[in-house]
From TrEMBL:
The methyltransferase is composed of M and S polypeptides. Keywords: DNA-binding, Restriction system. This is Type I restriction modification DNA specificity domain-containing protein. Residues 97-170 form the Type I restriction modification DNA specificity domain. It comes from the Bacteria. The keyword Transferase does not apply. Belongs to the type-I restriction system S methylase family.
Amino acid sequence: MSGTWPLVRLGYLCRLQSGLTVDSSRDLTGDVVTRPYLRVANVQAGYIETESVTEITVPRPIAARSTLRYGDVLMTEGGDLDKLGRGTVWRNELEGCLHQNHVFALRTFRDRLDPQYLALVTQSLYARHYFESTGTKTTNLASTNRSKILDFPVPLPPLEEQQRIAGFLNGETSRIDRLVRMRNAQASLIKERQEAYLSSKSSSLISTHGEVRLRHVLLSIEQGWSPQCEDRLAEPGEWGVVRAGCINGGSFRMDQHKALPAGVTPRKAYQLKGGDLLMSRASGSPDLIGSVGIVPEINQNLLLCDKVYRLHINRLRMREQFIAIMLRTRQVREHIKLGISGAEGMANNLPTAVVRDCRLPNVPLAEQDILVSAFNEHAASVAAAQSALTQQLELLTERRQALITAAVTGQLDVTTAHGI
């Protein structure tokens, strides 16, 4: 079978429908309708995420041109590089749903191309290579366009064979997807237990030692500098400015920075040093604001950006490591979320007054070191369990993609493959 299927330009096999461009100046005084509105984040590989779907009001003629139909294959224009062109079949999950201009709806010619087969092809290594190699890339985002999507060469077996492949892969991938859901549920449970453990310990320590506001152990809060930087990492000997997301995972990520242009003089007062306690000040996601991390010993010239606070601590009162742990408890996280400023849909900010009002267990200095050691030991065991689950998820994802790739490129005869 391999090598016997022709490669046919996708544009010859379907019609592409563009979506809505949101325009605040659109006329809403005439004949308008309010409909569900699908965005890039709602289109996942193999399914539609409907919980966060919003609604939009548009003139009826415009809605008619962007309404999804059962069997449309949805493909995304932009986002993470590995998500470009990912395809999912629309099955009328929401009646009368519209789609934004960054989501393309491909209406296949059913006598030549099966929608489910096309969606599976877009999830193969073959398709991923095409979209990742032809996409326009920046440091954080990537994009494709309608012409590149329509130019995608589709392996085209006879329609009956497409349907057999789709039926086989739906059965095989559903088993893999069940395992993935189970592993994700386990990972969520581990995270919840870790949060519960820290929160319980914090409450117990406050009950024993009382509490203190962060302001009483702070010397100062410093906000950094964000000049115009180059969209690349700094080379050895160059200066870099960290991104806002350098501590989003709870630990410092040195690769989250941009190179300072050669002609710009670095403000060395903002240089990061090992042991610095950092806190995220601003983000589009409230869940990431207030994330904390400690800078390890580094041998690179990195500067603090203005979206991250550096907390200078009175080390005669409290250890940075102890504070970093206690700032991750549910009690503190709720306090920070309630104190975030910023309108819905806009960048959120964390005022310094909210940071200073965070409540911590007032534990004696000598006991803090013992507690930090115990917390780190517990965290290491949790990290080991999470790492094992992550490895299993990666293997399942690779297995799923390899299976799809073999089937849609003719390397696997689905009529003889059973329970692979």
